[in-house]
Amino acid sequence: MENYFNFTKDSDEWADNKTQLQFTQVGLVPESECYDICSNAWVNYINNSLRDLIIHMREYTNI
Questions:
Q1: 22, 25, 30, 40 — which has fewest CB within 10 A?
Q2: What's the rounded Cα separation, in Å, for the pair 34 and 42?
Q3: Which parts of the chain have pLDDT scores under 70?
Q4: CA pair distance 3, 1, nearest whole angstrom
Q5: Per-domain residue ranges for the chain?
Q6: DSSP string of 25-58?
Q7: Structural contact between residues 3 and 14, judged by C-beta atoms closer than 8 angstroms
Q8: How far apart are CA 43 and CA 47, in angstroms?
Q9: C-alpha distances in Å from residue 18, one per residue of 5, 7, 15, 21, 22
Q10: What is the DSSP letter of 6?
Q11: What number of CA atoms fall less than 13 Å from residue 24's CA on the CB side?
């Protein structure tokens, strides 16, 4: 995604920066009975539905 800050003088300072988000479901641990299913569901939701929503502003109703 491209970005534009109209409040900076030097656009080179942020031109190659990357943003990383990390999501954690507190309490979901490998010992949980639903760990595999819930973990895979979160990965799918974040990597597909949420990513599409952010990039394309496309809303998903399959939650």
A1: 22
A2: 12
A3: 1-4, 15, 58-63
A4: 7
A5: 28-63
A6: -TT--TTSTTHHHHHHHHHHIIIIIIHHHHHH--
A7: yes
A8: 6
A9: 15, 19, 9, 10, 13
A10: T
A11: 4
